Amino acid sequence: MISYSFHNLMKCAALVCSLLVLNHSHANQAAEPISFEDMLEPTIKPGGGDLNPGIYSHPKTMSDFQDMKIGLSVHWGPSSLGGKEISWSRGEQIPREEYDAYYQSFNPTQFNAQAWMDLMKEGGMKYIMLTSKHHDGFALWDSKYSTYDIASTPFKRNIVQELVDASKQNDIVFGSYFSIIDWYHPDYQPYDHGGPGELYATDASTPNFERYRMFMKAQLRELIQDYGAKIIQLDGEWDPSFNHDIGSHLYAYLRLLDPTVIINNRVDVGREHLPADTGMWDWKRYAGDFDERERMVDWIQKESKVFGRSVNPWQAWVTIDQAQWSYNETPRRNRSF
After folding, report:
1. Per-residue pLDDT, 15
2. Residue 234's beta-bridge partner residues?
3. Are the C-beta atoms of 222 and 145 separated by less than 8 Å?
């Protein structure tokens, strides 16, 4: 999957990949209607929302992010062995036991981080957004807090570390996708897509969502402090276990770990509360540094809607395969870029 970001609207081109443009939104809780002109402010400053007053996006990192224009996002891991959708096929098209056992056979001996960098540079890409952990809970790095990770595979090599090292050597910014959802972890609720896996110990207090939150924060701390991820792309905020308080706290915690890191707006639940009249993310209430879009397929038809939704910075992805995000043995159609 390829993602594009653009410095501003004037530099945009009709490309079937993801974009980043600048804008603001109005609060959807306003008592009186607000005009489009009233939404604009001299400085763009999304950040921690109403529960983290005074915490705004790091201006230098956001400026650099907007100038990068194009990046590569990759959904890859043991689930690729099944050829079905990452995470979503677990307990559905693929029985949970079979899906969860893929890590025991995951041995991508031809993986070459430098080859990825060469491909990115050939395409003019300036940042990589690796799906370090999706909803299925598998970590592509050697996590101190989990055994359901790359160190437990026959491959054993730390994919995240190798990509981080290669990124530094090639002047590529390393970013990490991380799912708030973890269907493998017994402390995550609600159980879904097959329920928890077997590698974690349980006790009388299981499931314990507060304990899961501590686990989630610890893994995010690894990605930011140990691996230096400068962009955190969260997902899964639609799940009923998540709310505005949790998201706001998480945003502040991640910015405390690294004040220069930027985080997408799926750190909070603003996407679930878009006003029907404008469809604009209320950045004054909900935390996040940039708006997240996905699967913008019919560019010409949806162009005006996409640009009209927000005047905040945003990133959108479009999958190369129309059928799913991850490796597909029988792709529906490869788009021509």
Report:
1. 23
2. 178
3. yes
